[in-house]
Design brief:
The complex is a heterodimer of chains A (about 575) and B (about 200).
Chain A (H helix, E strand, L loop, with lengths): L24 H6 L4 H29 L10 H36 L8 H9 L1 H14 L21 H29 L12 H33 L12 H18 L2 H15 L6 H14 L15 H29 L8 H24 L1 H7 L3 H31 L5 H28 L12 H34 L31 E2 L12 E2 L12 H4 L5 H4 L3
Antiparallel strand pairs in A: 1-2
Helix pairs in contact in A: 2-3, 2-4, 2-16, 3-5, 3-6, 3-7, 3-14, 4-6, 5-6, 6-7, 7-8, 7-9, 7-10, 9-11, 9-12, 9-14, 10-11, 11-12, 12-14, 12-15, 14-15, 15-16
Chain B lengths: L2 H5 L2 H8 L3 H32 L14 H26 L3 H27 L9 H32 L9 H26 L1
Helix pairs in contact in B: 3-6, 3-7, 4-5, 4-7, 5-6, 6-7
The chains are: A mainly alpha (about 575), B mainly alpha (about 200).
Chain lengths: ~575, ~200
Amino acid sequence: MSISLAQHHHPQGIDGHIHQAPTSFVRKYVFSIDHKIIGIQYFVTTGIFMAIAGLLAEVIRTQLLSPNAQFVSPDTFNEAFSVHGSAMVWLVIIPMLTGAFGNFVMPLQIGARDVAFPWLNMASFWMFPPAGLLLFGSFVIGAPQAGWTEYPPISGPQYGPPGTTMWCMAIFLVGVSSTLTGINFLVTMYKMRAPGMTFTRMPLFVWAQMATAILSMIATTALAGALLALFLERVFGIPFYDPARGGSPILWQHMFWFYSHPAVYIMILPAFGIISEIFPTFARKPIFGYKAIAFSSMAIALLSFMVWAHHMFTSGLSPSIEVAFMLLTMVIAVPTGIKIFSWVMTLFGGKIHFTTAMLFAIGFIITFLCGGLTGIYLAAVPVDLHLHGTYFIVAHLHYVLFGGSVMGIFAGLYYWWPKMTGRMMNETLGKWHFALLFTAFNLTFMPMHFLGIMGMPRRVSFYVNDPWFIFWNELASIASYAMAGSFLIFLYNALSSLKSGALAGPNPWGARTLEWQIPSPPHYYNFKNIPAVYSAPYEFDKPLPYGNLQDELDDSKVPPQLLHGHGEHAHAGAH
Amino acid sequence: MAVHVAAHGADEVDHLYAETADLRLTGFVLFLISDVVLFSSFIFAYLYLRHSVPQWPWPPGTAPLDTAFAAVNSVVLFGSGATMHFALENWKHGNRSKWFGWLIATIILGSMFLGGQAYEYSHIQATWGGSIFGASFFTLTGMHGFHVFCGVIYLIILGLQTSQNVYTRQKYFGLVAGTLYWHFVDVIWVALFFLFYLL
């Protein structure tokens, strides 16, 4: 082997970190410590949460079909949008991009047998179902009504419904889970890369997960502080946010957005990573600007801590502070622009295969670009003063979180589905799914820009009886039903693929990263022998840059230590 | 590559399967960093609230904190950091009896600090829920005190484990983690002492 192993520290040994073949159903599918199973557990759980939160969105859109609809009471409407937003952010998008994709794909891409702390990983996952029960269960005693941001005093002890306390506990729980996952992933990516995989040979999805893990680890604990203070105020009457006793509601906004702006990047960086895998694979071309994409993820992560107050331009900050935050926010457009430029240049002159995954990736660029551009408008203080709290914000955030994150999630699902299940999805149905989702998405959220500019406030269940207001709202609502329909196409496609999809084989897309060089679905030990990495992953004009993989597809050549499940008892003995 | 496993004895194989000390050390340090952020968010809240009122303590008429007593109590805690350092050094040099001696000294000093904090709490007229002064002081020092309490329990567990030969001179990650945690609690107290008593 020509590469130097000396510079890579593998304390667990190159062959290390094998765990026992699971022996029972419970150990294999319920309390599994296998990162791939845990990843799929995240997919299923967050998928169920997404369905519930999506139905709440349809409640909102149904109420807004006409200016004075009585579909639900104003209180129920408040509950619906508050829980919809909270669930989509914390129970769907963040765990899907980190817990689900990160868990399934990242260890495979760095050539590891598992994450650094498999037991901790299992614990992180099992915090999610209780968090979901707490959040959705809050409807029983009166769900929170102050939106996903839960500003005091409307979330405080005086005005917030009892369920707001359950909201605090649910979000605290997912916060702990996300912090622990971030720590786990950071140690994994830092310490457990296959020999030869230097930082600049890591797949870009791994870079994205690394930037995300840093954000999850640092920012989420800041949110935990804000939530703990709100919890103490609600339960024990401790005055943090109550102005009557010297507290400050603005304090919550600072603490909340210090987390929640980085959280925006927790929700988009992994999607950037997914797109960066899909473009070179389906353009059959090396990625353009590998280092530019990798380092811009880190730049975004760093900058994201310096821009939180742009959410607070109407909260009475001093104008000089507002200008500083405006400029810093606009600076974030630079690394983001670098990425979009690099992706477009990757496509340029490529031999493009229009698979469903590729269509979603291209759709991602279009819709995310719209959301990014309106983000730059909103960063400008004078524009924000006019648009703050209107439907323009709703349009903007759905263009980045739905048009960005969810499009990225679907791109990734279509891309890695064969690896996860061993079976192909139906491409024709996939393309119908994309066409319907993309069209309906734009018809739902594009009108909200106009409504916002016309002055329609968000989070209100009635609106002015004006023909244009009614037209745009009806269009958005009807299109949102079509969007729900597109999810049914996906569900049907996924279930029929599991039942009778064509077998995928190890590498149906001709991709070059490590996870495609082993069987689909991978064995519980991932790699028979830990691979050696000689070069960067996207050089489509060169031979595959990996060594030690010759036995991977030959099932008769399993190293003996993988067959005789040594070892879980070793975890029990402390060192 | 498989030779690594085949060539070594059963102990070595078990060691390969376990989460190794190196991974755990990195993970533990990252955990402490995230805990620092939790304290930082409350410290930010404290400074923000303190800055938003014309005088401190708030409301006017609240008795200030007893800096002299807290200074003595701080010396007790910082002293426990030193004794813990000596304890781990003695473990590394295979000196078991001195390890136990210094560890017990650390546990006693840590408990003395907690007792001192309880004494101080009972002599402060401000209450937790009464004002932003009480809210920020009792929440932050209480969070720190809870960390010290957990640390004392952790050190007691480490003492029991070492008495049952759970750790060896080569493998003692738990002791390193306990020592790191104890120093972390010390460092947080430096910040809190400055912010509440000296600022």
